[in-house]
Amino acid sequence: MYMLRLRRRDVLVSSTLLWQRLVRDREANMPWQRLRRNLLLLLQLLILALLTLALARPFVTTRVALSGNLVILLDVSASMQATDVSPNRFEAVRRKVREIIAGLAPDDVATIIAVGSRPAVLASATRDRPLLRRVIDEAAPTNSAADWEAAFALAASLISPGHTQVVIASDGGLPDTLPSLNTQVRFVGVGSRSTNCAITALATRTGPAGSQAFLRVANFDDVDTEVLIELAADDVPFDVRRVHIPARGESSLTVTDLPYGMRVLHARLIADDSLGLDNVAWAVHRIGQSKRVLLVSRGNLFLERALSTFPDVELVRLAPDLLPSSEHEQGGYSLYVYDGVLTGTLPAGNLWLIAPPLPPTGGQLGRGWGVFTDTAITHVARDDPLLRYVDLREVHILQARAIEPPPGARVLVEAEGGPLLYVAESPERRLAVFTFSLHDSDLPLQIAFPILTANLLNWLMPTGGAAIAESVHPGDVVLLRPDIGAARILVTAPDGSQSMLPIEESTPLFAATDHPGVYRVQQLDHSGAPLSAETLFAVNLFDEEESDIKPRAVLHIGRQEVSGGMEEKGRFELWPVVATLSLGVLVVEWGVYHGASRSLIGWVRKGYEAKGAYSSRHRY
Q1: Is the pTM here over 0.70, yes or no?
Q2: Structural domain of 136
Q3: Strand partners, 63
């Protein structure tokens, strides 16, 4: 401060009138003077404060939109039709996916996979925003369950190295056994309540007292409820029942007075719930001709009684030593059941083998090499029609034969030591194999045994041209077995649409089972004339996981818990805003300065004009 102090030289002048500016400058440099009001100083201090704040880079914690390389799994399963949110869950989740797409940066890419019974890629790794919006607008919910295992396998194949995120847009009805993905997983959830009742089973049979129907309804809400069940035979209503269902429980109903000659039983559940797709069900009542079944056994009371309960089965029991040796003499049966024995020459027909002593050389039936005792059940193909309504959780097995199934076989039940039940199909026959003896298990004492026996008999001895069960799930592929002389198979869907399947070397497959209802199958010859009476089969949801519409807030993906939300926490830095604000203040300060300068110039000009006027007056 001492070095910067001004040193002035005293000079004598005649007058200070023309030296006012020098006086003001002297006064401005006087120390310890009072700070005067100065707008420019305040603006400059404000600019300095804002620049200092900008250099500190302040931020607030906020939520930022998803970005980078996104793989969006869009749930199009049946539960997305629930109306607990307006207008339904699918429309709500579609709006959220549109928001994600709208928030993508120009360099971000997105892949959209529709997760239904057969996952499909709608758009693959594209930056085309109109394309992404178009495929989202064209997507629609299906009437089937979602195959999340296949969807995760497809998503894992599309994940590329780098910043990739998998977004699950769903109501949360995912199994807890899904594998983990080697990337970040986000969950966009929808749904508000779990109010729903559903028909989970409907079947008919012909008993000693006539035709009977079995119906099961479930309540997926947390409170007890009462519903009405309306029954119709061939579209003609004939009965209404009131059923009480406990909270998160189920109730069963048996109807014995079915109309005579009924072909299709239609059940409708009347309840105020959020999902109407599972409130209807159909059952095809098939009354076929008597079928002869040959049972070759040393004695099995459980198996004999199970087979004898079916009215359309004519059971013939033979001991192994009384079995004819000639294949021709063994013919004439619809099904051959071998219990613990196996003859050298097997007849040409469908087989049900129980604990067969298969040789180690292998063949069309499989290859055996001993026994195993690690019989704790580890895997059950619950989605297979042959295990529908079959509960094997309380079944215990002492030992089973170690058998390697033939190529192409489907293992339905498997233990630690090997398969317990498998089926196979070839042009020659259909095959079902129990690798354990019924005497070495408590399966005959379980309610699952007669149900499993009925499912196997329906598959091993199909009625008519459709080699299927009476009921399948939406989206299932149906195998149609043509009659002799058939050239085409005509399938009529519930909505009236028709599909013509040509018969070639392979067995026709029908996959258009998306709509619940009754499908009609007609065998046609080369001229287009029907060969036999049409065969019916029903498509029903019958999926408790889809009917349980309780929204989930957290998903379990591998060992990771994924919570809902399409946004993630991030930093929103405020320095650009502060710097822009300081620039604006600088512009204001610049304007104020130039305005003050113009005022100062005008004041000086007025001073010079006043001086000239004084000089003129002095001269004159």
Answers
A1: no
A2: 62-192+551-568
A3: 569
> Can you tell me the distance from the alpha carbon of 291 to that of 206, in angstroms, rounded to the nearest whole number?
14
Query: With helix as H, strand as E and coil as C, how does 183-242 read?
Result: CEEEEEECCCCCCCEEEEEEEEEEECCEEEEEEEEEECCCCCEEEEEEEEECCEEEEEEE
CA distances from 336 to 307, 316, 318, 433, 452 (A): 12, 10, 11, 12, 17
Instruction: Let me know whether 172 and 44 are in one domain.
Output: no
Determine phi and psi for 461, rounding to 5 degrees. Answer: -130, 70
pLDDT at 568 over 90: no
What is d(CA 112, CA 124) in angstroms, rounded to the nearest whole number? 7
| Extended beta strands in 344-383, E state | 351-354, 367-372, 377-380
Chosen domain end from 270, 286, 302: 286
In a domain, 19, yes or no: no
Per the listing, tokens 């704790």 go with 376
For 330-382, the pLDDT digits (tens) are: 556 888 999 988 877 777 778 999 999 888 876 778 888 889 999 999 999 88
Pairing of the two strands 210-219 and 197-207: antiparallel
Residue 467's CB: how many other CB atoms inside 10 A? 20
- The per-residue DSSP string of 558-573 comes to TTEEEEB-SEEEEEEE
